Amino acid sequence: MPQHEAPEAVAALHRTKSQLATVPTLGIDAIGVLQRASVTDGSVTAVNIAAEGGVSRASYYRSPVAPAIKEILSAPDIKRPKVDELKAEVARLRKKERALRQEHAAEVRELKDTTATYANQIQILSLRNAELERDAGKLRSQLSSSDGVVCALRPT
Q1: H-helix or E-strand containing 133?
Q2: At what angle do helices 66-74 and 5-17 cross, to 10 degrees?
Q3: 60 vs 74: CA distance, rounded Å
Q4: Burial readout 7-27 (b: 16 or more C-beta within 10 A, e: otherwise)
Q5: Cβ-contact 85, 41 below 8 angstroms
Q6: 15 vs 6: CA distance, rounded Å
Q7: Which residues contact 139 (CB under 8 A, 6 or more apart)?
Q8: Residue 59's closest CA among 20, 103, 18, 85?
Q9: DSSP-derived 3-state class of residue 75
Q10: Residues of the chain falling short of pLDDT 70
């Protein structure tokens, strides 16, 4: 909706506000509902406006104010109540938190994989080191015995 249509919607709301007096069962003060919420969470929806006015949705939709309020609600340039702004901020922060949690989980998975890889390498190296120690022990025992096939190149 273009920006110049929003003031026309507000003017239409003011014009139709006078028509509310002719509908005594409706009793909706739409502008007041947008400013203070006592029954609902304060978000600007047609259902909440009807609830704040103490009328059914059907009565609200039949009222002469409904088209003007619908037009105002569809205007993106209209200043929304703090509740709506806070809900949008909460949604944005939850989305950001979800992204950060996913990023953190990916980092943790990567670190766990790296740790597992290092643990496997350490185990392999430990087994290889033990094998080399056994071989070195056999060679030392053959060097110390006179009947072995191994002889020292330099006398010790």
Answers
A1: helix 82-144
A2: 150
A3: 17
A4: eebeebbeebbeebeeeeebe
A5: no
A6: 14
A7: 150
A8: 20
A9: coil
A10: 1-39, 42-44, 73-81, 148, 155-156
